Structure formats: C-alpha cells, structure tokens
Amino acid sequence: MDEARLAAHAVGFGRGGRAILEGVDFSFGPGELVSLLGGNGAGKTTLLRILLGLLAPLRGEATLGGAPVRRMNRRAFAEQVAYVPQAHVAPFPYRAREIVALGRAPAVGLFGRMGARDAQAADEALAMLRIGHLAERDYTTLSGGERQLVMVARALAQGARLLVMDEPMAGLDYGHQLRLLGHLRRLAGQGWGVLMTTHHPDQARLASTRIATLVAGRIDSDGAPDAVLTPETLRRLYGLEPGDIPA
Ligand SMILES: Nc1ncnc2c1ncn2[C@@H]1O[C@H](COP(=O)(O)OP(=O)(O)OP(=O)(O)O)[C@@H](O)[C@H]1O
C-alpha cells in the first residue's frame, strides 16, 4: 500500500524572490480522501502541480512510491496518478463516453485508435459513478455536476489509483457537491486515493478521511477532520475570529 503514496518532501517554491511554499511535507495514498484547505493564494494549486511533476520545486522533491516524479516516465506516472480537471465545456460536441475514453490515452497512445476494450473501460467507469445513462449524451449539454462526474470517470478509465483534483466542487450546487463527495468517499473506501483542494471546510469535514491545511505556504495542520477543523485553525486559515462564527 505504502508503495503508491504521492508525497512532497521538504518542498520549497517561490517566484520573484517571494516564497510560495516552504518546508512542505505532505503525502496521500490509497484508501484516503484528503482535502487540502487554504485561503486564496495559500499555495494549494502550486503544491498540486509539484506533486504532479508539472512544476519543479526549488527545494525538496515530490515522489511516487519513493521515486522522484520529475524523473518518472509520464506514461508510467499517468498509469498511477490522474489529474482530474475542473469540468469545462468541450469545444466539440463529444459524447460523454468519448470524453471518458480519452482517459485511456496513456493506454492507447495519444493518436491510437480506441478499441472495444477502451469503450468497455469507459462504460465501466461511467457505471461506477452511476452515470451510465449519460454515455450517449453530448458532453456540452450536461450540467456542471454531471460534467464533473464525467471528468472523474475519465480518470477512472485511465486506470490510475490516485486522483488529484483542484477545487472539484467549484460551480456545483450544494446537492451536486455532496453527491460528488459521496462518490469520492466511496472510491476511497474501495481503495482509490483522492486528494482535492477545496474552499468548503464543512463539506471537507463531512467526507474526508483526513484534512491538511496550508497557511502562507506551510502545512499548518494535517490530521483527522474533527481534530484539524477547530476555531483556532479556521482563524489561521481564513482570519475568522470566534465572534465571526455563528454560535
Ligand atoms: N507563475 C507565477 N508567478 C508568480 N506568482 C505565482 C505564480 N504562480 C503562483 N503564484 C503565486 O503563488 C501564490 C500561490 O498560488 P496558488 O495558485 O498555488 O494558490 P491557491 O492556494 O491555489 O489559491 P486559490 O485558492 O486562490 O486558487 C499566489 O500568491 C500566486 O499569485
């Protein structure tokens, strides 16, 4: 199990002489749904990009199963870790099944032909998220919540066991936020590992197995949701004073 953890070790990053991340030690792995909380500009997206090997840290390193991600073959990395983008409107009216099958690109090669096995993997992923009925639908006609689930299905079809998501609940109504969290929690229960950033501590508390907080580029706390989300942590995260919180 430990083999597949995605980790940051003493990671530091900066731009223009300004520190963005400092001494960040963090990891997640199979069976976990970890929410990364932090105010605007705290460094969440920067940390995700470093974990994904898209950005080289100035100090420290990111590893997958102990191997430096920056030196890993991208296809080998994609077989283990999927980045789930925020749902967006595709420029062309692909069917949902086709969008999901695109997740198979690491398996079929970017310009390879999609075979029956790929279509089957796409259908299995859609079924796992209980959206099989959307397979033939034009992706551009789906609601934001449905599109986000299609994006998760695409990551599942890719075969990766670790999912990394940047604000997956942005733009979703409360119902779709909770539904998405329910799916992610279920995936964690089945052995997937999920890391997501969010601006919704309450939802994070409901669904996460663990919560980590970033304050000014440093990990401020990391642990069980109820232990992390104290009034004191919320003050450091969002500048909230006890009187600001409805009693
Ligand atoms: N390429 C860059 N050049 C200069 N500054 C950058 C660059 N990328 C990020 N930053 C700065 O680094 C800080 C952290 O940005 P990051 O996007 O990681 O924060 P975040 O926690 O994801 O924020 P948000 O919740 O607002 O999306 C911000 O102050 C941002 O302006």
SSE order and pairing:
Elements: E1 6-15, E2 18-28, E3 33-37, H1 44-51, E4 59-64, E5 67-68, H2 74-78, E6 81-84, H3 96-101, H4 105-108, H5 116-128, H6 144-157, E7 162-166, H7 174-189, E8 193-198, H8 201-207, E9 210-215, E10 218-223, H9 225-228, H10 231-238
Parallel strand pairs: 3-8, 3-9, 6-7, 7-8
Antiparallel strand pairs: 1-2, 1-4, 4-5, 9-10
Helix pairs in contact: 5-6
The site of adenosine-5'-triphosphate (ATP) has 10 residues, from helix 1.
Would you mind describing this structure in some detail?
The chain is α/β, with parallel strands linked by helices. The protein contains ten helices and ten strands. It has a six-stranded mixed beta sheet, sandwiched between helices. A four-stranded antiparallel beta sheet has the order 2-1-4-5, with helices on one face. The longest helix is centred in the C-terminal third of the chain and has 16 residues, at 174-189. It is globular and about 55 Å long. The chain starts with 5 loop residues before the first strand and ends in a 9-residue tail after the last helix. The structure holds adenosine-5'-triphosphate. Adenosine-5'-triphosphate binds next to helix 1.
List keywords for this structure.
247 residues; alpha/beta; Rossmann fold; 6-stranded mixed beta sheet; 10 strands; binds adenosine-5'-triphosphate
Global shape: globular
Query: Which consecutive residue ranges, at least 5 long each, have pLDDT under 50?
Result: none
CATH topology description of the largest domain: Rossmann fold
Q: Please state the average pLDDT score.
A: 89
Total beta-strand segments: 10
The helix-and-strand class reads alpha/beta
Q: What topology, given as strand order, has the largest sheet?
A: 6-7-8-3-9-10
Instruction: Characterize the biggest β-sheet.
Output: 6 strands, mixed
Q: Which oligomeric state applies?
A: single chain
What is the name of the CATH class of the largest domain? Alpha Beta
GO molecular function, one term: ATP binding
InterPro entries: AAA+_ATPase, ABC_transporter-like_ATP-bd, ABC_transporter-like_CS, P-loop_NTPase
Domain ABC transporter: 6-241
Family: Belongs to the ABC transporter superfamily.
